[in-house]
Amino acid sequence: MILTQPILNVFAALLLAHMLGDFLFQPAWMAARKRNVFILLLHVAIHGVLTTLVLGGTWQLALLVMLAHLVIDAAKSYALPAPARNSFQAFLGDQALHIGTLGWIAFRYPGALNDAVAAQAGWLLPVALIISGAIAAVLAGGYAVGMLTSRFSEHLPRGGLPEAGRLIGQLERALIFLLILVDQPAAIGFLITAKSILRFKEATDDQKTAEYVIVGTLASFLWAMGCGYTTSALLEISAGIP
Fold first, then answer.
1. d(CA 73, CA 119)
2. 137 or 149: which carries more pLDDT confidence?
3. What CA–CA distances, in Å, run from 195 to 144, 160, 210, 211?
């Protein structure tokens, strides 16, 4: 299969709808209760509405996206036991299946965009890719890093401002994503140094806290860098396709 501009345009639109539906318009209570069939159907319906909007009204293809999303989420919600269902590996597998399905749909239906939307694809495509990458880095990264480090958090002393750690992680991933997009990856080193200085005292006072901070920081930085370089690569590919 040859990658063409229409295929990439459709994929970017579908990816944007997916990122919005899974991370911006899926609150924590919805994600935690998807074994309730009505909440699962509500989540799938939100994806259908968002997909229809980004395609410019092509609701027929949105139905296919909804069906695929329903099957994947139902399999994760009902087939996996609770510990596995909430694991980092399940999160990665779930997202890989969703994005892989969207890629297949884009190859299969390259003309899915409404004519009016397709006519504006020259500037809509990079915007969709950048927004999707930012959501993946900042919001999806929070879920990923949280799941990866959850087994260590129970051994830590309680303290600190509520939600401050989550916000710090979001800000650092947003900065890393931005630095990569503007081709200034060397500045990430200064960000690491700054965080190391700010965390120095608590890291030296308690070994468990130090190890937790190191694991969480490295995971957060690597996730954001992966999202940044993937987005940058997709933008370069789109610019090189006639």
1. 33
2. 137
3. 20, 16, 12, 14
Is residue 102 within 8 A of residue 15, CB to CB? The reply is yes
Q: Rounded to 5 degrees, what are φ and ψ at 3? A: -80, 125
Contact between 54 and 13 under an 8 Å Cβ cutoff? The reply is yes
Contact 122, 221 (CB under 8 A): no
Q: CA-CA distance, 177 to 137, in Å (whole number)?
A: 7
pLDDT value at position 152?
Answer: 72
**Do the Cβ atoms of 129 and 238 come closer than 8 Å?**
yes
Pick from 160, 169, 114, 108: nearest CA to 137: 169
Work out the number of other CB atoms within 10 angstroms of the CB of residue 9.
25
Tokens read off for 135: 């959501």
Neighbours of 39 (CB within 10 A): 16
* Residue 119 tokens, joined: 């006519």
Which residue in this structure is represented by tokens 């080193």? 189
**How many CA atoms, within 13 angstroms, populate the side-chain half-sphere of residue 134?**
14
Q: How confident is the model at residue 200 (pLDDT cuts 50, 70, 90)?
A: low
